[in-house]
TrEMBL record:
Record Pfam families: Thiolase_C_1
InterPro entries documented for this protein: Thiolase, Thiolase-like, Thiolase_C_2
Native organism: Ottowia thiooxydans
Signal sequence annotation: none
Xref: SUPFAM superfamilies: Thiolase-like
Entry protein name: Acetyl-CoA acetyltransferase
Ranges where the Thiolase C-terminal domain occurs: 234-376
């Protein structure tokens, strides 16, 4: 795929948090699509590519065609967990370059908070794990966190700093679900979910959805908002079950990041803002290491000085992340939305100065699938 050939031109969330009674995931997707199209000045009739994934709809793009009353030329419902949406961006770019569609929408919606955990998650039977009754996904991430602590001396206090940094960003975001003050001591003393992770090391459980709109770079220049150009994409997968992960401290983000950097012609030092999947405090730490922002094993010490917080040297998860902003089951789409808004300079109090390159990194399953997208402003193409 050609660097900068396509751009994200519209982004929007649906209602977030705890949505109105009777709202369905498709309602939230449609709401997000309508708002994202308004954001860029396009109409539903312009959409001829439909991309999406959901935990509550088996054939989401087919359901959306019917719900929206449209007949797109191209569709893709690739499902890889929370990294699906970065993969959809790559697939949409390929489809637009190939002439399969001109205006692509990527969408997601979930009512996991109002309907409850059991309504949104199928039960996978694994003969090596299920007999031990793990509380998934928390148990799997706790296992990886314990290994990182054992191998590298990472501390619970260092993990807690990641939650505190996310909360500081959330306090600058009017749409964030959690805005109460949070200290490292409060993270450590919160209810233990699966050692070493307390409830404050774990993501929120919210409803929500949203959408983004993509088109060619040529068409993007004539639309309402500044385009966020797709500079590079990369994806990789390593396992399904955590018991089959070759190394609990090293994820396939190493491969997906390397591919994205190579196609963008950039490196970690060129990134102005990082939006990385923080289903748990551990994931932020792992992805900062695996995406090259610090050496493997040094993530704990790296984050401990507050550099991830507002005003810090490494602005990360600037909307408050899955830890404090929202987390409706699969979070990847919201990372892309925030990355685009940062590039446009639309983020108010939480705006990162001179932001021209943004990285959005998605994670699916239990550290299973990784997908990285690098976006840039007009100054980068």
């Amino acid at each position: 795929m050609k660097r900068g050939s396509c751009a994200i031109v519209g982004v929007a969330e649906s209602d977030l948090g705890e949505v109105a009674e009777g709202m369905s995931p498709l309602d939230l997707m449609a709401q997000g699509i309508g708002r994202a199209l308004d954001d860029c000045g396009l109409k539903l009739r312009d959409v001829d590519g439909l991309f999406g994934a959901a935990t509550q709809s088996r054939m989401v793009t087919l359901a959306l065609r019917e719900y929206l009353g449209i007949d797109p030329r191209h569709g893709d419902s690739t499902y890889l967990g929370g990294s699906s949406f970065m993969t959809h961006v790559a697939h949409a770019q390929a489809a637009i370059e190939a002439g399969l569609c001109e205006v692509a929408v990527v969408t997601y919606g979930s009512t996991q908070r109002t309907e409850g955990r059991s309504a949104t998650r199928g039960k996978d039977i694994n003969p090596y794990e299920t007999p031990f009754r793990p509380f998934l996904p928390s148990t799997a991430y706790a296992l990886a966190a314990s290994r990182h602590m054992h191998e590298f001396g990472t501390t619970r206090e260092q993990l807690a700093e990641i939650a505190v940094a996310a909360r500081k960003w959330a306090q600058l975001n009017p749409a964030a679900w959690e805005k109460k003050d949070l200290t490292i001591e409060q993270v450590l003393s919160s209810r233990m979910v699966s050692y070493p992770l307390t409830v404050r090391d774990c993501c929120l459980v919210t409803d929500g959805g949203g959408a983004l709109v993509m088109t060619s770079a040529a068409r993007a220049r004539d639309l309402r908002k500044p385009p966020a150009y797709v500079l590079g994409c990369g994806e990789s997968a390593s396992h399904t079950a955590i018991s089959n992960m070759a190394d609990l401290t090293r994820t396939a983000a190493r491969q997906s990041g390397a591919l994205a950097y190579a196609s963008a012609g950039l490196g970690p030092k060129d990134i102005d803002v990082r939006e990385v999947y923080d289903a748990f405090t551990l994931t932020t730490l792992l992805f900062l290491e695996d995406l090259g922002f610090c050496p493997k094993g040094e993530g704990g010490a790296f984050v401990s000085d507050g550099k991830l917080r507002p005003g810090g040297a490494l602005p990360t998860n600037t909307n408050g992340g899955g830890l404090s902003y929202c987390h409706p089951g699969m979070y990847g789409l919201f990372l892309l939305i925030e990355a685009v808004r940062q590039l446009r300079g639309e983020c108010g109090q939480r705006q990162v100065a001179d932001c021209n390159v943004a990285l959005a990194h998605g994670n699916g399953g239990v550290l299973s699938s990784q997908s990285t997208v690098i976006l840039g402003s007009a100054a980068t193409v």
